[in-house]
Amino acid sequence: MSIIIPALLFGAAAIALLKKTDVFAALTAGAKDGLSVILGIFPALVGILTAARMFRASGAMDALTALIAPVLSFVGIPAETAPLMLVRPLSGSGAMAAASEIITRYGADSFVGRCAAVMLGSTETTFYVIAVYFGAAGIKRSRHTVPSALIADAVGFLAAALFSRLFFPG
Amino acid sequence: MLFGLLTGRMDAVASAALEGAGDAVDLCLGIAGAICLWSGLMELMRRSGLMDGLSRLLRPVLIRLFPESEKIPGALDALSINVSANLLGLGNAATPAGIKAAKLLRGEGEAGGGLVRLVVLNTASVQLIPATVCALRASAGARQPFDILPAVWLASAFSVTAGLIAERILRRFFK
Fold it and tell me: Choosing among A124, A128, A140, A158, which should be mutated to test the B contact, i.e. which has the most B CBs within 10 A?
């Protein structure tokens, strides 16, 4: 796996040079975009992480987790990822905050931490995407979009737990 | 808050609020470098024409997924740009193309099958390298931040397939 990133960096630079693209200008222009992305999500992260910490410190998180743990463990999903799964379809920065909390709390290389990362990586902010697309196309009746998209999310979460377990046993 | 009052943990809740705000700074600084590098690389791929190449490769697959797009001029182009930008994680390029495709694929005032499939494809992540997630893992001290990639790919594939199958089945129940 470790070969992918250096190969990608090298390959992209080589192809760009062959096509006579200004490599450094493209790199810095893109990096500037990245910076504005970070700046854009920072205010939301302050709010969400504060709320998440308070929610956890109050004990409400443990209560909620304990409540749904039996159902989740039945299908093989660690209950610790419940807050992530709840916010994932609603808010991108919320999901990032939830995942980062889980990953730092349980460890990046733990099963729970890996599972949270795979969940975050294999799903999208469903309701936001639906709102953007139907809003732009001027469509009022979304018909079966929401149920189909939520089924995709649910299967994504199940598969994330399954493959985190399969690829990283123990 | 209420839960904290009930359980008598108000002190912990108060200090948690400040810690949470501090976490946001740590998180943003922790991943900022990786995100900027990645955005730079993606911009390079877009400028050097790699994205266009990828979108040409995708056309045969997309024709099968969206048979109606063949009859609408420009629809297949917009679709292939949308999907290839999503694969590379270029959100800024994916959304305008996706919206263009959505406008071309829409039915009369309500979502047609093609539009629903497009949106389902966009609500399920097909990103090949989820850079933000890997940056998060790296800043949390993962030994190999990228070792989750095969699991992410398989989970994405299951998720997208399930979404498209669900679209096919549910279509009948939502007239």
Answer: A124
Q: Which position has the token pair 């002190």?
A: B11
pLDDT digits (tens, 9 = 90+) for B97-120: 999 999 888 865 667 788 999 999
| Chain B hits for A110, Cβ within 8 Å | none
B126 → chain A, closest CA residue: A122
Cross-chain Cβ contact B99/A137 below 8 Å: yes
> Which residue does chain B place closest to A121, by CA atoms?
B130
pTM over 0.95: no
Sort B20 into a burial class: Cβ within 10 Å, 0-12 / 13-18 / 19+. Answer: buried
The complex's ipTM? 0.87
Angstrom distance (rounded) from CA B83 to CA B118:
9
From chain B, the residues in CB contact with A146 under 8 A are none
> Going by C-beta distance under 8 Å and a sequence separation of 6 or more, which residues neighbour residue A13?
A23, B44
Q: Note the pLDDT tens digit of each residue in A42-94.
A: 888 888 888 888 888 888 888 888 888 999 999 999 999 998 998 999 888 88
